[in-house]
Amino acid sequence: MSVAPPPRHGVLAKFGALLLSRWLKEGLQALFLICLARVSAPRFGEFVLALELGAVVLLAAEFGLNVALVPHLGGDPEEAEAALKRIACLKAFLLGLAFLGLWGFVSWQGYPAELRRVVLLIAGGVGLEALASTFFTCLQVQGRQAAEGRLRAAAALLGLGYAFFTLAAGAPGPVVALFKVWENLANLGGVLVLLGRSRPRGWGGLKFRGLWATLCQGLPFGLLAVLSALLSRVNLLFLQAYGGSGTVAQYGAAWPLVDGLHAVISGLLLQSVLYPLFVRLTTEDPAELTRLAQHTARWLLGLSLLIALALAMERDRLIPLIFGPQYPEAVEVLGILVYSVPFVFLQSLAGFALLTLRRERLLAAFFAGGLVFNLAFCSLTVPRWPLAGAAWAIVFSRMLVSGAALAALQRQVPLLEGRTAGRLLLAAGLGWALCRGLSPLLPREAAELAALAPLAAALWHCRTPGR
């Protein structure tokens, strides 16, 4: 009697296709921003502000609706088409509202005409991705991630190729800013072609009750996404108001070094790998869930402290090497932002653990509290100390949210053991002291390697539970 081989789902191949397209897009965009930063600091500040506001518009239009769409796509074809129509219409409506809100905000703030056009064009282009992602979800359910990856890569090459060409040609800011519009129009048109017969045929038959029920289904996740986006970006609005695009540029040269590393860890490791595993272990093996969460927390805390220490020691080299010599204030900003690295990493882990336990409303409340604190702190400090106030606002608000999330988890899934956390923090402090003490005596590189040694040793010592 022969035994049928287990089904091969091709998970790694699908994940790899999406990962490569994302790295291509993010890498090209980072290279474009670096080139722009070297050409003009004020224009770089304008584009940083526009891209961050675009991320808020995108998340407001997404509103967690892709999560609500997935269960409907694998069943009856008519129900799948009806659900696709509902989600697409809701996203178009939310995108329109978000764009109108952004237009009202930039008009109220009195931004210069060119900055206003740059912000609206880039944010509108980024927001178009919300419509494309609806149909990309269909491809994902059909197992066609490779096709999605190829399309996203081609669209990124089109949009960013246009951006590099217009920047080299000396085109005005609003002309260059169209690159996001072209990229996501290509994504939207391309995915509709790929879907072929699977795409909706006509838009009749939509009912308000169905639209409202679908919106309510994604409401907690949508609010959570928007609050999280605002928490990281609201200080840029204060910087633009009190310091202008040049000040935003100084902050924008430092923040990607912190946020980019976190995005890789959070988006790829936590969201794509560990979160689905957490959800499964919640019902199958709660004890293993606790063990895995604690193991992950130990390594994330140690890794984040290593990253923070390395950035603190090398910040005066990294900023000029990447962005050029015209960003001296960014060096000091990065020296403040490194304190947020452990909080951001632990906040992401604690957040996914709370989502696993179906406590998304509590997590949204924590983000709302952090956002209120951020607004209050920025209003008090940014007018007097623009860059330092904006940077410390991120540190303290992230510390508040991560502390609240960790405290909420302690009874069910305690993430951090006091002894282990204390050992890692002590090792980080010892490393910083070694760096400062040995720098006058040894070559800089030798002093920095010695500074990293205590943290590396502490991580090795606590590699297994109970140590």
Task: Walk me through this protein's architecture.
- By secondary structure, the protein is mostly helical.
- The chain is built from 17 helices and no strands.
- Helix 1 runs antiparallel to helix 2 (41-62), helix 3 (65-73) runs antiparallel to helix 4 and helix 10 packs across helix 13.
**Helical stretch tally:** 17
Biggest pleated-sheet summary:
none
β content, as a range?
Answer: under 5%
The helix content is over 70%
Radius of gyration: 23 Å
Kindly, what is the distance between the CA atoms of the first and last residues, rounded to a whole number of angstroms? Answer: 49 Å
Classification by helices and strands: mainly alpha
Shape field: globular
Average pLDDT, all residues: 82
Task: Give the low-confidence spans.
Answer: 1-11
Number of strands: 0
Order of helices and strands: HHHHHHHHHHHHHHHHH
Helix-strand layout with pairing:
Elements: H1 11-39, H2 41-62, H3 65-73, H4 77-109, H5 113-127, H6 129-141, H7 145-168, H8 173-176, H9 179-195, H10 208-284, H11 286-323, H12 328-337, H13 341-356, H14 360-381, H15 386-409, H16 418-438, H17 444-461
Helix pairs in contact: 1-2, 1-7, 2-4, 2-5, 2-6, 2-10, 3-4, 3-6, 3-10, 4-5, 4-6, 4-10, 5-9, 6-9, 7-9, 10-11, 10-12, 10-13, 10-14, 10-15, 11-12, 11-13, 11-16, 11-17, 12-15, 13-15, 14-15, 16-17
